[in-house]
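hey all, quick one before standup. I had two proteins in the batch that finished overnight and I want to keep them in one place so we stop losing track of which output belongs to which input. First protein below, input sequence then structure tokens straight from the run.
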Amino acid sequence: MSSRLVQAAKQWRSWFWPSLTVFSFYFLFRYAFGFQGQDFLSHQFIQLQAGQVPEVRYDITVNGALAICLALLFTASLAFALRQWARYYLNRKLILSYLIFAFIPLACTVLIFALGIRALFGITSANTVENMMIMLSADLVKYSTSVQDQTLELLSVGDANFNVELELSNIIDETRRSELSRHSYSDLLVDVYFLSDFNASNLFMCMYCETLRDKSLSNLTGFKTLPDDEYQAIFPHWFKGDDHLAIVERQDRLFIQHYSVRPFDETSRTVAVATVPIDTQFLEHIRDTMDINVSLDHNGGYWSYRTDSPGSSWFLRWLFKPLSSTWELRALDWSSGIYRPTATMTFEISPSSLLASLGRIKERNFLGNDQKQIQFYLILSITLFLILAELMAFVFGIYLISYITRSLNAIADGHERMAGGDLDYQLPYLGKDQIGAMGRSFNAMSTNINSLLKEVRIKEKYEEELRIARDIQMSLLPDMRDTPAGEHISAICIPAKQVGGDYYDVFEVAAGRVGIFIADVSGKGTSAAFYMAELKGVLIALRHLWDDPRQLMLAINEILYPALSANVFISAAYLLLDGQRGIATLARAGHCPALHISQGKCHDVLPPGMAIGLAKNSVFGKIIKPVVFTLKPDDKIILYTDGLDEMTNQGELYGLDRLRDVLISFSELGSEDIRDAVLADVRKFVSTGEQNDDLTLVVASLPKAVAAVDELPKTG
């Protein structure tokens, strides 16, 4: 259950952090460059005194705080996603190096370029708008001055029979056609007032008022006196009655307004007010002139004027959205006489408007002379070249870091899979460089390890078979605890390898006699063990000869001589102990001499004989001659193979002398204690050496007299 939870947690992390990174980046980008725009900072203008530039205080809005939270969330999720993708420390160092040397310089270069284009575009657009307003203001001054001159000329006639408004309308229309023919001012409004005593509202009269026609004052004829509130709206308390030209905010609308004041006589004057509203029609005129989308928004949200050029697609408008430039527009509050930021004018850039902006730089000589223009284009070209170079480095860096991290991850995954036991795993082709060489070395190492492990498995299988063979071989040797004579006989067989060619056996012969057989097959290993097993079978088959050592040896040689290889022979000895008579008979076929321990002395028992398998019985029988000798109850007789006395350590043989000394020293002990003492002395002699031959040792004493039995003899 716990492993499933761990696996589920790993799968959860594998998709959660990348998904969170994508979503946080999307919403952050949407907030930063949304179609409608977002206000991250709120600004409040603090007016010090009339006519002074206001101070600005900025505060972070809710959108700004949310954008900061989204930026932090994007940074954290990106860090976790990269940490999960770059699991190894080297990958993280590569990514960090890439961010420092490729991505951050590219981002900074693009940002500087974007800010430069934005500033250039904004300054050019603002300069163009300013020039248009200056030109329009000059036209208004000229127009209103011409209207004033003709109005004074009309009033100087003093004829009461003509319609003042009609005459003024003709004058205004004629002047509009003559003075404003270069531009289209269909929304131009003109008011003409007569003041008999300035700042006295009861003597303020409107002779021609286009701005008041929607207030039931249409079709005015002659002089009409306006109420005090209308007077204050046109001539506020701060107005001094001089010529005045400004962008004004009046009744929550913006106007370019020019006041032209002319004296009529000593106590009266005329005032011509020409106004052009800054509205959608005005912005469309700017758009047609500049080839740019312009929007004007009231800071208080009372109105919003926008233009929309169908020349570019939504995708390009969205792409160039970060390059849009926003400028504060200050206007004169007509009721208070204070200049204050009233609206924001936004210039939305597009490919066509950008080219038009660059063309206007050349036309208006914005940078002063040709040299500055050349320098500008040179800087622009270098910036574009730098962006292109950084972009190429960015793309190449992505490819390089992706290749390195992917290759390293593949190698690391290969090691993990090999550590998990998948030794047949091969890495894919990783290239011709050093990483590819590492991949090829890994595959070669995997192949070699796999081959070695196969060899190890084969060796382990072979050793297991040898272990089984050893167990079988050891099972062929008698267990002295299960034989009646076991308390008088102690034996041990230690092969030099897993299996060996040494063999011993104990037989219970009829009439209370015990036979001890010991043999040593030439060579070591499986072949010697095979012949040893074959010898075991032959002895069992010849049980009827167990009470006759010489005939037993002849029969064994007769059977095994044709079965043994030419270079294989068997040295053997057969000892027949008679407990009733107190005698022992020893037949030796080329084996080591038996050692007889009696009364603290050691005697060699060495009857003639040759090894089994060297010659036929015609020769073998002539040489082998058993020997009979007397055994006392406390005597010991030792049978052994040459692996005991020929044990070596640094070229020195253990030898029969050491063996005799140990036997004499422990002659008073029982058979098992003598056997253990001999083995301890041999191990002490060998110490750091290695056993180079099979070792077999049998220590026996005369068994007690037993009653004769009629049953068939048994083998141990």
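OK second protein, same deal, sequence then tokens:
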Amino acid sequence: MKSGNGYKVIGSRPIRHDGVDKVTGRAKYGADLNFPDMLYGKVLRSPHAHAKIISLDVSQALEYPGVKDVITGSDLPIVEERVAEFGEIPENMRFLSDNVLASEKVFYKGQPIAVVAATDIHTAEEAVDLIEVEYEILASVTTVEEAIAPDAVVLHQSLTTNTLGEKTDIPTNIASHFRHENGDLSLGFSQAETNGVVVERTFTTQTVHQGYIEPHTATAKYNPDGELTIWTSTQGAFAVRDQVAEILRHSASKIKVVPLEIGGGFGGKIRVYVIPLAALLSIRTGLPVKITMSREEVFEGTGPAPATLIRVKIGATKDGRITAAEADLFYEAGAYPGSAVGAGANCMFTAYKIPNLRIDGFDVVVNKPRSSAYRAPGAPNGSFAAECVIDEICQKLEIDPLEFRLFNGAKEGDRRPTGPIHGKIGYIETVSAAQTHEHYQSEIDILKRQGRGIASGYWGNGAGRSSVNLTVNGDGTIMLLEGSTDIGGSRASIAMQAAEVLGIASEDVRPAVVDTNTIGETGVTGGSRTTHATGLVAIRAAEDVITQMKGQMADHWEVNQVDFSDGVFSSSNKSCGFKEAAKICAPVVGSVTESTGGAGGGFGTHIVDVEVDEETGKVEILRYTAVQDVGTAIHPSYVEGQMQGGVVQGIGWALSEEYVFGENGDMKNSSFLDYRMPTCYDTPMIDTVLVEVPNPGHPFGVRGVGEVPLVPPLAAIANAVSRAIGVRMTDLPMNPGVVLKALDKI
């Protein structure tokens, strides 16, 4: 029986294929792996935020009973400076290698300096303490303001600014400066100043972590024939293989990466940290080596989302028409260049038609862990600033914030502020759905310091290379092999697309995420690409299977042509279902590797109600509704879960999460006890509204859904708090202390 969308499988809610393994504990995660004679690695990390390594003596550690090897930065091959793409953010290979194991300097507290391999973890920990390091401590900079000051300490003497495509020759902490510009900015602001309003604000966000439950871990095993096998929890097995090959100068064809189950990633498990160290130790010792980070090491030694300083200025006429917008975005890259400032600039104004615009983006290095992707990397920060200014304009013009968005909202055929033309999009549909939702129609109690916030957000979604192998078994079931790490139910969404094409139940498709020697090259699970791109390749593989089976059935029936529709093969007066045909044709293999296109960007519009306690400054989330254009919801339950998960993370960004640094650049809250993530007591039931405007770039209309939900919450909650207390909130997180200071201004 077909569903309301015309499909049999798509839009249904089957039990996920890996569900039983997950709930019974059979699923294997990175740290679950053990081998006989396995060694355990422990990393010595810098206690300083910025220092030269004057000397490094590992002799006592090497002599300690049970220690099999110690490596330092001098043991890594020299890697040339070259930019490569491994995921959502490009990597400079020299910086990547230095981040794995420091050579001459350390640039943040927690940067690796040496690694011990021993017969047990306790011995490794004891031996690390025997390593003697002499440092020359240098002054550090831990904020954008400090880093760009004229007299700032410069982290990298080789780093000069690439400004608007041209390299300068003066060492600086500003790695790059770009600009998006169109129209006449002076004219646009003049129109608003004459007949409307102009609002200009400066916003800050702090360093925040993805907060995945499972820490980074890797096990490596080297064979004398040169074959290196790595077991790890990662968002991209091929990205791991290629990074390790580059850093260790080891042939990629002799590296097999086996992706195990992953306990969360959100963009933070694309770049390698301990993986090359475990691999090199195994190469040197000839034994398997496992390295697992502690929670403190995860906070201090992996890549969080960047802190930002953003200035936004927007002008609009009295009737609510946006005439001009400008923004300066300063994103902290951490110790090495490569923040997500480009994505922040691309996304922050994309929901609107803005005739006159300028955006300047700056990538700034500071003495903090190197920043990494985090779910729509860069977009939540930029949208926080833009959407808060838009809300203030709505207040000043006394215009309903959703009406304002309907008036200025982007539609198909409109030019995006950064250049490209919108294809088929569903932004206006999300705003309309929010406007008619019961939540927006309900009342709030302003006497209790309650406020309602609105914000919209955009993420572009990705495509890229994916591979799928389908094998038809004699009983009509399908083995589906793919290379995309399953973080949010992508096994199910990919299997369901194949099942829809084949006309069988999703339960008859058995998906498996396999190693880099078993499947063709596949990009990372990130950028909201997996259900779209790997699903599209699964569709192609299923179509290949059908073509082969039609040919075989034609031979079997001795006819010239066989048709296939709705799971049934037919010709003249003959027909049979897929399972019956499988008995005749099996085994049949369909294999496709393809660099896909056709990704369709996604939009969301969120509504949130809050109540502020005037005595404590605590903000309580009363109600939250997330509306999103999801293209076509393959598995609605997982789509809803992605939306709810993004909102919960956004609540953390907005109200409580931040890295707290001391005067010397050391992190003071590197545990889940002190790094305040939301719990069930901080979040309400989150309502979801799935708007389906199919993406024409995919046969079933798929849009990526995983990253859009984190873009609006920061601004939506800030707007709600601002309206509740009557003071515009510009700095995150809005913890009780920050809110109390704002209340003092009333």
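Flagging for whoever picks this up: Residues 33-138+213-264+269-301 form a domain with the Aldehyde Oxidoreductase; domain 3 fold (CATH 3.90.1170.50). The chain has three domains: 19-27+462-596, 33-138+213-264+269-301, 308-461+600-743.
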